[in-house]
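Entry:
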Amino acid sequence: MFKRLSLALVVALVPAAVNAQDSAKKRLDASPRHQEWVSIKNGARTVQAFVVYPETSRKTPVILVIHENMGLTDWVRGLADQLAEAGYIAVAPDLLSGYGPGGGKTSDFASPTDARDAISKLTPDGVTSDLNAVADYAKKIPASNGKIAVSGFCWGGGQSFRFATNRPELAAAFVFYGSPPDKDAMARIKAPVYGFYGGADARIDATIPTAQEQMKALGKTYEPVTYEGAGHGFMRSGEDPEGSEPNRKGRNEAWTRWKALLAKL
């Protein structure tokens, strides 16, 4: 029964994901901001990353953007562009670099399902190693002011929370509907953690009270906000022109909060 329900959920989400992708691609293609692909070495590996620069005369923080379990899609690249529009350098690594067909990346997979299967095979240590290499690259960007924050969505939301346990000098971690790490790992967190959750996302929402309790006991900053009626993935679904009002409202409110927090970096 669980498998049937999971399949039904995936099928139901496909139209919204496609619409959000199409909308994001059109917006991305029309962006006036400088976008580029860079190759980042991590030992024997090479991580491909999408970088977008803001149009500004001052040095700015860098925001690492960790993608969902479908990999570095057009929607994620579009979100990186929106961060640059808000005034920040955005670096979005493709953590499926080298794992696609023929040693390719996300765009080389035949379907989102294939990308999800590949994501499920990534190891925590491997992801951390790639993210550290990307963060090291970000620190050296001449237009950066040296501050680095991390953000992530769905699978990437959990990775952003977890990366904060492994990169203590982060300026902040922004967790969008991702699961928390265990308490022992939380003890290593130095950066403030800000959570963004959908009120209709019971699976992830069930983790919030324990994470709050544990972070508080450890003397860490963890500030979750839940957007009423919004579902899992509302940042993506909220961009769908035909999406639900709770998802659109949640996305807009989350962006307002996020930009206010970013301004404090």
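The chain is about 45% helix and 20% strand.
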